[in-house]
C-alpha cells in the first residue's frame, strides 16, 4: 500500500504523518509512506488545503490532521 502525505511540513502535516504511521503499524499492514512537499506535485492531486492523505493514488482527506482511528478506517 502506498500512502502519501501532502503538505509543506507544517505542524498539522507532521501530526498527520505521525498518526498515519501509527495507524498503519497498529493494523500490521505493509506500506510505503511518502511525504510530498513540492507544491506542484500537491496541485496535481487537485488538493487546495494541506495536509492531505492519499492512499494508493486516491485523495482520502484534505485540510485536516485526522485521528489515528479515522486513518485506520481509511486503511482497513
How would you describe this protein?
The chain is an alpha+beta fold. The protein has a single domain (2-75), classed as Glutaredoxin, CATH 3.40.30. The protein has 3 helices and 4 strands. Strand 3 and strand 4 (58-62) form a beta hairpin. Helix 1 (11-27) crosses helix 3. The model has no long low-confidence stretch (mean pLDDT 96).
Quick summary of this structure?
The protein is of the alpha+beta class and 76 residues long. It has three helices and four strands; from the N terminus they run βαβαββα.
Q: List SSEs in N-to-C order.
A: EHEHEEH
Oligomer: single chain
Q: What is the strand content?
A: 25-35%
Give me the CATH superfamily.
Glutaredoxin
Assigned CATH architecture? 3-Layer(aba) Sandwich
- List the total number of helices: 3
Largest sheet features: 4 strands, mixed
Distance between the termini: 11 Å
The side-by-side strand order for the widest beta sheet comes to: 2-1-3-4
What is the CATH fold-level name?
Glutaredoxin
Detail the poorly predicted runs. Answer: none
Q: Given this structure, which CATH class is correct?
A: Alpha Beta
What is the total number of structural domains? 1
> What radius of gyration results from the CA coordinates?
11 Å
Task: State the secondary-structure class.
Answer: alpha+beta
The best one-word shape is globular
Mean pLDDT: 96
Overall number of strands: 4
As a percent range, the share of helical residues equals: 40-55%
List keywords for this structure.
3 helices; alpha+beta; Glutaredoxin
List the helices and strands and how they pair.
Elements lengths: L1 E5 L4 H17 L4 E5 L2 H6 L7 E4 L2 E5 L5 H8 L1
Parallel strand pairs: 1-2
Antiparallel strand pairs: 1-3, 3-4
Helix pairs in contact: 1-3
